[in-house]
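hey so i finaly got around to running the thing on Ureidoglycolate lyase from Achromobacter aloeverae. pasting the sequence first so u can double check i didnt mess up the copy paste, my clipboard has been acting weird all day
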Amino acid sequence: MEPRNNTETRMYKQLAAEALTSSGFAQFGEVLENRGETRRRDFSLQFACANNPRLWVNRIDACSPDGVLVGEMERHPNSAQTFVPMRAGRCLVVVAMSDERGNLDGASVRAFITDGAQGVTYRPNVWHYSFTSIDGPNEVVVIMGHSGQQTDTVLRTVSEPVRVSWPGSKDDD
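ok and heres what it spat out for the 3d tokens, dont ask me to read them lol
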């Protein structure tokens, strides 16, 4: 899913991104960082899955300084998905939970900004927008299991698009 920096005139919800922290992100997954507490930090979410594990590198362009309009999100029912940026620079992470029927819950959408030295692992079934670079082009390592079935990735249009801003973006009030 490619970032969409679309500036359509239709109505959308405003959302200010917050700093990415382990406690703030816990219901969606894990923040990958050492925090300087130890030489090695292990993570509880499993990278391995019952499916065929895959690792690849995506090149991502910087998003618009105007903010990001989120109109579509995806989830992966069969696997966690991990993103590890290869260059220093802030990234935007937009996530949401499912409602009781398994559909995207627009009321639960949250946005986070990495500090330039963090990655994330999304839990299986967590809705998310494209991992988006803010400070310039980047490359990101992606780790995910694939079953080869159409259900590996589920895409949904957001019923009410969300305009995400962050400190320093032109949409920042």
